[in-house]
Amino acid sequence: MSSDINELYRRVIYRNNTLTDLLTTSRSTPGELVMCQEKKLVQEAVDTLLDNGIRGQPMRDGHNKVYKSFSDVIKGKEGRFRETLLGKRVDYSGRSVIVVGPSLSLHRCGLPHEIAIELFQTFVIRGLIRQHLASNIGVAKSQIREKKKPIVWEILQEVMQGHPVLLNRAPTLHRLGIQLGIQSFQPILVEGRTICLHPLVCKGFNADFDGDQMAVHVPLSLEAQAEARLLMFSHMNLLSPAIGDPISVPTQDMLIGLYVLTSGTRRGICANRYNPCNRKNYQNERIYETNYKYMKEPFFCNSYDAIGAYRQKRINLDSPLWLRWQLDQRVIASKEVPIEVHYESFGNYHEIYAHYLIVRSVKKPNFFYIYSNHSWSYFFLSRNRGSYTRFFSSLFI
């Protein structure tokens, strides 16, 4: 199998030799018309070598395939300059569209199954061979191509736990883009064919979720993995190196979501009595509040029961409820005077406050239960922050 350039060169040499034989070995002097025709054929062969198709119909082979000339080898995305000199394809890398992943942690990213199995294929093959699930590389690759055995995905998840990945969004045109435009993340498997990203890390990449693409790379050496974990994780690049301002700040929909979680009612930002479009709704709401009848608020012994009720649509984000907590007296000290105190015959007494109820015991004075009366959005927000003590400390200030 020869190259297309060799075939075009062969055509030039053949026509040039024909012209040379005509000039040197011919007994009679060739006519002027014949000489012009032979020179024209040589020039046509040279032009086809430089740019096939410049004279109209391109030259093709026996399978009706167009020969690639010098210009075809150089130009285009797969040409010599753009593919080899200006850039090159990188192994253990992929590219896909980014979408928002609000449930992800700041240092995590979601990789589709197709991208993850290709990036970590060699590690999965090694895991299959070490566990004696495949005798050689060919058998391991066939098991990966089937994508039906759960052991393949189990090994893939184990491999991903120990290998961070690098995400990059082109172009990186300034120093901040180079420093923050390439960050490391802990990958997890997600459904679909897009890369999931936390919305707070988009500012460092100068990315948004309107079709932007990002490249993912796998660091292979131990030095690269250590550098990715110690220096390049997204939660370690929270401040701008230029002016020191925070980069991961909530904007747009995140601010609206925080407002909804912390608001007492769900009327919305623009629903007020001064808006003529909402004046009628506000009057109807006043009538509803006047005719409001007391309804018993739900009670939950722990946050997991409340989460189950929220997922089953039994409560909403703004639904008031009672939630029971067990805390240490040494952690939280009440500075508020109770409204009422009820004593029981068994030694327990209830301290009633404005938004919570404390049940204390004479036998165990350092431990008590708090029955807090707030909307589910407050408990949900404090649970995601992972600081219940800080949340209840704010109740006593």
From TrEMBL:
One of its GO terms (biological process) is DNA-templated transcription. Residues 2-262 form the RNA polymerase N-terminal domain. InterPro entries: DNA-dir_RpoC_beta_prime (IPR045867), RNA_pol_asu (IPR000722), RNA_pol_N (IPR006592), RNA_pol_Rpb1_1 (IPR007080), RNA_pol_Rpb1_3_sf (IPR042102). It is an enzyme of class 2 (transferase). It catalyses: RNA(n) + a ribonucleoside 5'-triphosphate = RNA(n+1) + diphosphate. One of its GO terms (molecular function) is DNA binding. One of its GO terms (cellular component) is DNA-directed RNA polymerase complex. Its EC number is 2.7.7.6. The keyword Zinc applies. Keywords: DNA-directed RNA polymerase, Nucleotidyltransferase, Transcription, Transferase, Zinc. DNA-dependent RNA polymerase catalyzes the transcription of DNA into RNA using the four ribonucleoside triphosphates as substrates. Belongs to the RNA polymerase beta' chain family. RpoC1 subfamily. This is DNA-directed RNA polymerase subunit. It comes from Brassica campestris (Field mustard).
